[in-house]
Amino acid sequence: MTGISNDSAWINIQETPLSLEEVLEFLRVEEAGGIDIFLGTTRRWTEAEEKTTGEETDRRETILLEYECYKPMALKEMHRLVEESLARWPVRRACLLHRIGEVPLREISVIAGVAAPHRADAFAACRYLIDTLKIRVPIWKKEHFVDGNARWVEGDSAPEPLSSPDTM
After folding, report:
1. Is 138 exposed, middle or buried (0-12, 13-18, 19+ CB in 10 A)?
2. What is the dihedral of CA 19, 16, 43, 156, to 10 degrees?
3. Based on C-alpha coordinates, what's the Rg of the chain?
4. Would you list the domain boundaries of the chain?
């Protein structure tokens, strides 16, 4: 485990493949009955920026994604997000890991994971981590296509408000 880690949080940015097994091992604690893990992977087809006139969208074949970041600032903001999730929900452990550099098809680029006593809190906290990461953390994504072209992807906007645990 590298990056920022303690008994309740693990945050890291790395150029090597991310390990789901290590994340699961970190999240397994006796106090947690629910573990939620989100994996972001490189998919083969990407919708084009402009849609066609019909219902169908233009698709481009992707060969890899490339991620860059300002690591000190990104780690600091990722740590804030995990601390926010620990304060907002009864989370026992949380992790937020991101890969940088080239990420080929089917490989994992981001993992958000949460362990909580109950599933509703685990789901809500995990969704908060991944949705907010894409808005606040300075990590940039470039899509590379089979035709040799590439483009930088615009960041996400604010996520929809989360339901409170009482309404789930």
Report:
1. middle
2. 100
3. 17
4. 9-44+59-152
Over 70: is that where the pLDDT of 143 sits? yes
Integer Cα distance of 60 and 45 in angstroms? 6
Comparing C-alpha atoms, which of 1, 40, 18, 5 is closest to residue 134? 40
The CATH number given to 9-44+59-152 is: 3.90.1170.40
This prediction's pTM: 0.87
Q: Tell me: the pLDDT tens digits for 36-64?
A: 999 999 999 987 655 555 555 678 999 99
Contact 110, 130 (CB under 8 A): yes
Reduce the DSSP state of residue 114 to 3 states and report it. strand
